[in-house]
Interferon-induced protein with tetratricopeptide repeats 2-like (Betta splendens), 463 residues
Amino acid sequence: MELQPKHSCTLRPRSKASSRNYRRKSVRMSVAQNQPALESDLEALECHFTWDLVPSRSQLFRLRDQLEDIGTEEGYSWLGHIYNLQGYVHCQLGLLTEAQRFLGRAAEAFRQIRNTVSDDGPWLMVNYGNQAWLHHHLGAEAESQASLTKLHALKSKYPPPTQDELHPEVCAEKAWTLMKFSTEQKLLAADYFQRAIRMQPDMVEWQSSHVLALVKAFEHQPLRTDVLEKMKIAKKHDPENLYLAALYLKACAESGRKTEDEARDLARRVLTKPVSSYSGIKPLLKLFSVHVSIDEAIDLSEEAVERHPDNRYLKRCAAMCYKTRIMFQKDHPLEHSLVERAISLYREVISLYPHSSHKRRISLANIYAQTNYSQVSAEQMYEKLLEGDLEPAEAQMLYNHYAKHLHSTRKDKHRSIEYHMKAAAIAQPSSYRHNSISILQRVGARNRNRMCGEIQEFLTHLH
């Protein structure tokens, strides 16, 4: 049964109580009296609960699945961090028993990675902070205080090099966590990794992750030359990091370098690695899709699925390749079997990621529509999505895609413009909002649509 948070402790009269019960009540009363001090101590911690992560519920589900897809082998050096973040995610979702389980696994993972059997080491600071917060959410204030006591002992034993700086282990874990969130937080992650490296320069995985944070922060724009050079250096120091190698090769291809032979060689290496979102398979498939051959990308993804037929992440990657072939290679004829395979994969992947497949459901609706496989199914999927209880970012994405569907498939320009307006009206920065605004600006500038006046007025008042 899932643990429930408790908000108060009820103290009964002392009469006929055993000395043991009396001692328990004394502890509870002491904790209640010290509640403001405890909460102040908790707020001052450096841990997931105080890092201003503020994910939405849909982001929490996506993050839960992303962390699970890293696996326990390729993500081994980050296993403690993975479990710590999973603990936080499950707590935010209200799954407190699971949260406790993950935080316990985090502590054990740190012991294994650092080859120690003790509860001693600066790498446990964030974990103790998380445990203190989780106990507080459960109403177990004595246990929360006990976790704080352990944490304060570690901080005294392992102070940072300078008083105004975090310990490098805390810096690195904060950086790794921030990488999983917004563009601004990815840039902040790069800064925290840099600070950790300055204090402890011998950690190769920190150096690689510092570069990856920069790459992720600039993934929607041309990669800067200095970042590409940093990738090259990091790859040399971390030759077994095939995720970094795949991203570097993809960046080289995007800069105009011929990479086909290197990509094929790297593909052979990636296929022999344990299955993981850190294996490099996804950026490699993107490289193949754009710079080598989409058919080779599909073959590579199918070979990976054949080797690991029960792995959902590989099926997700394969589905992505088929979508690219269908949606962006429209000048090539589509075989019925290819469309069938794409739809079959998408249906299965959606069932394997039931709480984090909003974008995949939109993609499946688009495949139905673009291939004329089933316009009825496309309309039914879109109607169901539009009727759903959506967060602003989800609604914005849906409205942008549906507007394009109305324009290209339904030939309903009026409603298409209305949905682009709905997407643009959601004041959340994203590529979908930017795209809808750009389309509205182009339509308004042509002055050929009967809604041009309405569009111009809308754009004038848009914030």
The longest helix spans residues 96-113. The chain is about 70% helix and 0% strand. The two ends are 47 Å apart (CA to CA). Residues 25-157 form a domain with the Serine Threonine Protein Phosphatase 5, Tetratricopeptide repeat fold (CATH 1.25.40.10).
